[in-house]
Structure formats: structure tokens, C-alpha cells
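For this section, I looked closely at a protein sequence along with its fold in C-alpha cell form, which I now present.
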Amino acid sequence: MDRMISVVGHIALDYIVDVEKIAGKNESSPVIDYEEYPGGGAANIAVAIAKLGGKSQLISPAGTDFSSSGYEKLLKEACVDLSHLYSIEDMKLSKAFIFTDREDNQTTYFYWGSSSKFKELEPEPVDFVHLATADCVYNAKISQVAGFVSFDPGQDLVTYSKENLEIILSHTDILFANRHEISRVSEMTGKSFTELKAMIDVIVVTYDAEGSRIYTGNEEWAIPVVSVKAVDPTGAGDAYRAGFLLAYTRGYSLPTCGKIGSTVASFVVQTRGCQTSLPTWDEMKFRYEVNFGILEAEN
């Protein structure tokens, strides 16, 4: 039976805007097109895990427009466990305004909305938790009452205090970061990458089109991207983490977890929106085996 994966972070509505170029200060740029999609890193990951056939639980503050926006219905239909949501009566859902230019450069503006209440909330103990982009105070609290901690500070890393970051890292079993974030973590903590590897069992560093690298002890694996015709890069990282974490809880080897993550991500980038084209496990398995060979059995 699958292990429940609790995911902490935002439920958000994403406004994905295609522009000619990312405008600088006091500049404007033509908008090519825009759409509204369900998003928020935690919700993206929880939905992806559920679509793959896993068990996911979302831990997040839900704003007054959670039901009226259709997001509650979507999550229930995806079979995501909503029993740990916090109902916030006086604030709207978080909103992300994501601007992408023709070269896939992105700039994001984020309205925290109901997520701004995170720091006031008290978490309950959970078995296996993934800390997505969220409030550093709440993440520090829940990291201390969780059996297993996966942590991805993401773009919210700039909001973390050194104290809260160090508390979370001291309880972290898997750390996800891109090349810029891992350098920032080292700067904030004063620890070299070698020292971080010594204190965290598994570190996964993503390198955009160059794929990802997985580090554990003295071992290291390079994981390539799965090549597809990409339409929108938004949500690829969330899909990668969903695939990786579900595979990890099912006992697959670390390089296989990375390849499953890369395969799940390849579906997301083929269409606009973070949850639009998420695969089932069988769909993921077929594409995995086309690119990497026979998928090993679960342990």
C-alpha cells in the first residue's frame, strides 16, 4: 500500500502570460496571450502524485474563493486528501502572475493571500512530508513533527531566516534545489556543498535543460531530461518532484526516482498549465521505457 505523502505549500491560481520580452524597470512589453490555470507548488505536486496513482494530502490555507473558483472540486476529483486544509475566512486564494518570454525566461509576481496565514498555524504530526514553497516559520514547525522530511525552498528561499532554514535542514532527508538555490543555501548557512551532503541523506539539484544530479554519500548520478516539444516550462519542477517522491516511497533506486521525475516533467511542459497534462503511472511507464529501458521492479 502506498505511503501517504503530505505536501505543504500554496494553493494558487496561476495567470500565465506570454510576452515578447520580460520588461525592465519603467518599461512595457506586448502581451501575446494569457490564461488562468490551477496552480501553487504544493497543489501541483499533490495532484500529480494522485494522478500517478499515489496517495497525497494537501496542507495549506484555503481562501474564501477556494470553492467558488472551482479549485476545491478539482482537487476532490483528483482524489487529493483535503482533511488537513485550514479554512481562512477573510482572505482570497494565493495568485501567481507568471510572465514568460519567447526564450522561456520567466518573471513571477506572487500574491500570498490566504497563504500569509501560514505562520500563525500550528501543524499536526505527519509521517512523510514534502515542504514546497511556503512560509519558513510553518515549515520549520512541521519539520520537527514529521517522520520524514523532503524540502524544496524554491523561490521563497529569499524569505527564509538563517535560523528557520537551519532548523529545517537539520530535519531534512531529501533536499531539492536548482543550481542557484543550492548556492544560496550554502551562503545562508555558511556550509559548503560537501558539508550539506554530509548532513542530508539525498540532495537533488536541477539544471534546467541539462537535467538533474542526485547526490547521496559519495555517490552521484546525472539524470537527463526527456526530450519533447516544450510549450510551457511552468510546473516542470513540481512534476519532477512528484514523480521522484512517489517512486522513492515505492522503493525504487535513486537514479530510477530521478528518471521517473524527469519523465513526469516531460508531460507537463507539452501544454500550458501545471496540471493540464499530468500522466497516469502507465502513461509515465510507457514513456520512461522508450527513453530509459525497462522500469525496474519496486523494492
User: Anything to note?
Assistant: The chain has a mean pLDDT of 94. The chain is about 30% helix and 25% strand. Residues 254-268 form the longest helix (15 residues). The two ends are 13 Å apart (CA to CA).
